[in-house]
TrEMBL record:
Domain of life from the UniProt record: Eukaryota
Protein name in UniProt: Catalase
Residue ranges occupied by any Catalase core domain in the UniProt entry: 38-429
Keyword terms: Heme, Hydrogen peroxide, Iron, Metal-binding, Oxidoreductase, Peroxidase
GO (cellular component) term, any one: cytosol
Organism of origin: Crepidotus variabilis
Family named by the database record: Belongs to the catalase family.
EC main group: oxidoreductase
Listed cofactors: heme
Amino acid sequence: MSSLAQTVMHSLDNVVQTAKIRDLSKDFVEATSNDGLTTDHGVKVSDTDNWLKVSDGTHAGPSLLEDQIAREKIHRFDHERIPERVVHARGAGAHGYFKVYDNSATKWTAAGVLTDPSRTTPVFLRFSTVQGSKGSADTVRDVRGFAVKFYTDEGNWDLVGNDIPVFFIQDAMKFPDIVHAVKPEPHNEIPQGQSAHNNFWDFVGLTPESAHMIMWVMSDRGIPRSYRMMQGFGVNTYTLINAEGKRVFVKFHFIPELGVHSLIWDEALKINGQDPDFHRKDLADAIGAGAYPKWIFAIQVIEEADEHKFDFDILDATKVWPQSLIPLHNIGELVLNRVVDEFFTEVEQVAFCTSHVVPGIGFSDDPLLQGRNFSYFDTQITRLGVNWEQIPINRPVCPVMNHHRDGARQHRIHRSEINYFPNRHNAGHPVSPSQGGYAEAMAGVQGMKQRVRGVKFQEHFNQAQLFVNSMTPIEKQHLIQAISFELSHVEDPVVYETYTKLLNNIDFELAKTVAQKVNGVIPDKPGRSNHGQKDATLSQFYYTPKEPSIVTRRVAFLVSDGFNILEVEAVRAALVSAKATTWIIGPRRGKIYADGESIGTGAGIMADHHFEGQRSTLFDAIYVPSGSHAEALASNGRAIHWIREAFGHCKAIAAVGTAAATVKYAINLPEVDIVNTLDTDEVVTSYGVVTTGKYNMKSVARDVLEIS
Ligand code: HDD
């Protein structure tokens, strides 16, 4: 089913009911065949195609300004666009819910959303890329936004995070610089959806605090396979406050049930052109198919007394809190189970504010967070107007009562003569903390007013090195390739020379290999000694589920006339029952005839796409059934390209019987063993197919597909 059909189905079936969906449903508008067309002022419209004209009935004459119906239609259209977000313009979103497992976090926080297991808190999650504009492609190399709005009983809590746990800069005051540097260059508006250009690498080369973040963005985290297969991080250090008013520092994490998986760069590049909406569709399709994306929600906690115990500053957003030092506590889960009904009113108009927290959650002195707390509300005023929190997707599910008034697009009609406090009726009065009023935790501060960075904020390379040390060899190889790609697109030698020099502070081999590839400064010895530390939890392989899953994985069946239909049906049924999605790809979109069937009259099978209509890049695995079609496939350049490209992207390839020779011919690597099996159970329980020897899929696969 197309994602469009799913969207419609969802709005009609109304399958998921949370407090927020019930709230939104007050604003649902559904056109039916009983509804006639009206103007915005409600008058019925008799003609929406012809502007009122002076005409002799045979020839069109001048159009009349008098036609208020035509004018309204054009006016409304002229003003459809609002400013796109200055960053994170390209995104997709979905509804869902959040639940904690138990009340174990009560010792740290009084927040009901984090402690009350009987609650189901509605959420809206918007994923995004950062650099590109609203119409850019999904699979660019970039950070992904992971912004969650929790509609709690005590008000909205916005956790505006990313898929990477650290950030480019330490102080919010540098945000406009990093964003200007990464965005398309000002003189020519190039490049779109890419960081591979002079200005970005110029800035980060001169800003060593970004080194750690650059390693993450250049790692495979920068090109996720799916929004559903990314971690989410609150990034900044927040605080939790318990019922006694005691404060602890906290970092928030989301861990995807499906594990963390990435594309490889060649796939990402091609998908950018083949299907720029790849991630957006993937999200809608998975939810539509009932394979609801799920994340474990976890926290890391540091007691106030331990704030200064670490060799990094725990308020520095360019540092992780290594899990080897500060363990994760899994306290709940977040599930997305409903696609949006309308993109603009939900995904485009949703607006987040880091400053929006609820009782029991607070801020820290993290200088990035402090600045963010100013910036988000401010930007929403430009984007949506000062009353942006009245927009349906943004309004809380709990009562809102205050003396804020007026402003553009005010929708609330306050039936009271009182718009101030104190007032003679005690209307809209402050609520004490014991009654649920928000209370900041008491925290001592001392110092002189000055423009400074903390002392530990000055160290920039230890954790960049920790991250690189913790990578598996294949992750490291991809990191080298990614930085080399980017610096190859940097034209100014000053810029790529500066960056290759900087790399030597992180890793000698990395610096040397990249410099050799991009004509940078090749070091003859390490810029600093390697501390040799590792943390396994920094590698994305750490998050591969113990029981790998093929739920929602896309498996293409490559067929031509003369394929073995019984085999296709059996394997397909097995894959579908394991909740993978299957697609028939043939020489044409239409009927493909099986072995023994006569062309044109047999029952055949409908191909979803022809070989050129979709490419191997859009699938996780391919299956080539046996049958007399093997020769036809082998003589079809496109089919051969399919197999060869899938092999190059380390995908699992199943080839059965006669098809084994076709696959072998396509990949042209005689030493590769083809597992040849007709036993569907085996195909479905064993590992894909091209398995052993030098080209062992398991060791090289970025995104290991287990057919299990
Ligand atoms: Fe930001 C949007 C994440 C630092 C200023 N940011 C935005 C979004 C995400 C993040 C996910 C998109 C929200 C949405 O879907 O609507 N930003 C981060 C993270 C940061 C961070 C994880 C570092 C920890 N941001 C940051 C700083 C500033 C901003 C330091 C300014 C001082 N961010 C903005 C913004 C945006 C934004 C300009 C653009 C659109 C919006 O806010 O609503 O205000």
